Structure formats: C-alpha cells, structure tokens
Amino acid sequence: MVTQTLSSYITASSYEKIGEKAIYEAKRSLLNWLGVAIGGSQHESVKKVLAVSQVIGSSPQASVLGRTEKVDMLFAALLNGLSSHVDDFDDTLLETVLHPSAPVYPAVLSFAEYQKKSGKDVLEAFIVGTEAAARVALSVYPSHYWKGWHITGSVGGIGAAAAISTMMRLNVEETLFAIGIAATDPTGLREMFGTMTKPYHPGKAAMNGMLAALMAAQGFTSSTKSLEAERGFVKALSNEESFEMITKKWGETYEIEKNSYKPFASGVVTHPAIDGIISIQKKYQLLPQQVEWIEITGHPLVEELTGKKIITTGLEGKFSVYHCVAAAFFQLKAGIHEFTDDCVNDSCIKGLREKVRLVINETYREDQAQVKVKLYDGREYIHTVDHAIGSQQNPMTDQQLQDKFIDVTGSIINTEKKRRLIDLIAHLDEVDDLAEFFALCCPVFTENHS
C-alpha cells in the first residue's frame, strides 16, 4: 500500500498546509535554480537538443529560459532541466546527493506557463514533488547510487509526476498511475558523469514525469504497487527496503527545508576540499613552485564520483577533485570559468594537479574534508573543513544566493531584469499571473548572439 498511501498524501496536500520554512526554502531553491538554468542556456548541449525539437516541429507552448525560443511543454521541461544542471551548479540534498530542483522545477514551470498557473501553484507543486522524490531517494539510498544510478534522474521523474499531478488536481487513482508510469521509466547512469548526458538526466526526468501525469489524466494505467512490489522500483533498483521513508511523518516537515546550494560549479563532494584550499591560499598566498604535494582527506564518494585524474574537458573537470583543488589554488574560486576546456588544459593547473593526492576516510561526512599542503622547505599547512560552505550546517545566505544569481546569469539578462526577478521570486506567492516572470527570463540579445 506504499504507492497508494503516497498518492493519497499527494492529493491531500495543499498550499495552506505547508509551513513557512518550506515555502521560504522553495523560493530560495527557485532563485538558485533559475540562475543556473539561465546561465546554462547557451551551452552547446542545449543548442543540440533544441535543434532536435525543431526537427520534430515542437509547438511553442513554453519558454526555454534564457533564450528567445519556445517549444512544447515536454521539450521545455527537458531543455530547462538540462540547462540547469549543465554547469553542475544547482542544489543538493546531501543525505542522498539528490539535486531536487533540476527535475521538478522545469516540469512545474513549463506546465505553469502554458496552463497559466499562479505563483502559489508553482510553489505548492514544487514542494510536494520534491517531497515525493526525496522520500523515494531515501528509500533506495545508498545501494541504488552505488549500483550506478544517477539518483537525480532515477527518482526525479517520480517527483515531477507528483508535482504535475498536484497542479492538475488529479485524484488518488490518477496520481497512483502517474507515479507508476514515471517509476517504470528511471533515467540516469553515473557512467555518464563528465559528459553532456549527465545534465540530460534531470531534464529527461522532468519530461518523463510531466508525460506520466498527462497520460494518467487520460486514464492510462499502471501497477498500483509500482514502488513496493517485488519487481517494483525499490526492490528492482536497490538493495534497500526502506519503504517507511516514503510515507513516514508526511507533512510534519519537508525535505526541501534541508536543501543546500553550491558556491562552486562542480560535484558537491569536491566542495569541502575546494573550501579548504581556498582558506589556505587566502591566508598564505603560496606559489605553485613551493608546493611538494597537496593531500585531500575526504568521504569515499569523493573518489567514487570525482576521482578522474586524466581529463581534457571542462565537463570532466567538474568530476576531478584534483582539478578542482588545483584550479581553486590559483583562482581562489571554482566558478564556471574554472571548468572551461581552456582552464582544464592550462599548463600551470595541469602541473599542480599532478601534485594533488587523495586519502579516503570512511568516517568523514560528505561535507567534511582535511586539506594538507606540504612545501619543499618542509613547512606544512593544514585546514579542516567540518561543514563546507553551502551545506545545511553552513548555508549560503540570501544575499549570497542573490549575488550568485546575478553572477551566473551574466550578460544573458540585464541588471534590471535580474533585480526584478529576485524581487518577484521573493513574493512569488502573491503573483497570480506569471507572464512577467517568463518575460523577464527572456534574453536581452538576439538569437544570433547565442
């Protein structure tokens, strides 16, 4: 009865039942997600998928955020999910390393634009969809992830289906079928990390989830036990059977309240190491020729997810803790520029990269690391990061998120639009017509610029 119970909880949810803390964090999540979506909108991978939509003849129903084009709702969900994850700068629920916004907000906003939904509709659907995705993630983590599934893609479709079911006010049976349709279509292999296919995962999850809800609304059926059955989602894709995590204490607190935001444009498990090397460099201003070696001690996922030593592209660099530390040593940051092809192939950074070594400590948390720098003259400098900046225990402030939004959107939208979007999102629950929101996401340059 797990899927049935989850469906009944989803359909019983309402904006009025959601606490202020969850609504506040949903707004912060939107600001962060929208910034990276607009910032990633000009990436080559987005252009390639957009070209596919044009070959197919996609109807202009919803915006590709940060671009002038409109496509159908499904392709808009795919493209906006892709663009928001392409720079690996989006949010994370660290307990399962799920990126909650990338598969859910693209579906919600694409549907909201075409169906003329309100700001409250958007926030409610996002919170409910994220809750569903996060709880399913908790039921299959960690074995699901270690088997090779990219959890953002695999459970994200279920979250998107729950979100769109909420917006469509589907009944319990229809929501049950929407979850089942999404559950049968998991997306994402970790083998794809460092390629264009990695950010495709949340986009495809958003697309799958929306399609699942639309099909369920037409009476398309699925198993009524898609999550808990012997050959259902949880048992087929993991060694866990933590079914209680899916429904336990639903509505008492919300998983979105635990969301964390990235100050660095790389795999989240690299952030403690980046934080540590920047702290050392700010204090001592070391030169690369002084350094004999740099030792990073961290959680096992640092090696599992970001252990790439031989890299040639910026996308690969995001999954190389060696590059992350070397680039941050020189630049005192790890933003979008530090993960370009040029930066990855810079001779000075490549040279320092070879001096970085990794030590795994299974007692460390994902947001914890120790950075030790040994100089040729015998001096050693050590910095321990207990909670990396951006983690739940050391969160980015509202001002830092606003500054990030302004920075990552670059020249795609102008300063006036940026300031207006920041204000609009802060008061999104008061907005009945989202037309201005989508207009503000449209770029200031012509299509030829991109």
Automatic annotation (TrEMBL):
Pfam families: MmgE_PrpD_C (PF19305), MmgE_PrpD_N (PF03972)
Molecular function as annotated in GO: lyase activity
Sections of the chain in a coiled coil: none
Domain spans labelled MmgE/PrpD C-terminal: 264-429
Gene3D superfamilies in alphabetical order: 2-methylcitrate dehydratase PrpD (1.10.4100.10)
SUPFAM superfamilies: 2-methylcitrate dehydratase PrpD (SSF103378)
Protein name: 2-methylcitrate dehydratase
Family: Belongs to the PrpD family.
Span of domain MmgE/PrpD N-terminal: 5-244
